[in-house]
Amino acid sequence: METVGEEIEIAMRLGKIRMRNRKNPMGDDYGVDAEVAEDGYLIGSWRSLRDGAHARGSVILLVNPLGNLMYGFFTGLGHTGERTFCGWVLARQEEDLGRGVELLRNAILAPPDSVLHRIASNVQA
Asked: Which stretches within 1-125 are classed as H helix?
């Protein structure tokens, strides 16, 4: 899993959580507007803040009960228009990132390759 070191500003505005990144080494600036749902989930949308960009998608993150990390997924479109689903871990301290990645991996239901092959075969038929 690729990691990107950046800072995230988190604030409340009009009853929503608002996040914005800073110091992204690839220049991928984005903003997130999310609501706190039951059971500690943040559910919302993200958008690119680059001039002229129209990249956007959805986000769902689980806030760790200790408040030191969040993990989940964001969606969007890839460079050729394909839908993408990507894991996302945010942590207050760099040493918590590994734990967040582990929690995310454990939360994913991964069917065996043979089931994936059968699903792909049925779709193509």
From this structure: 97-107, 113-124
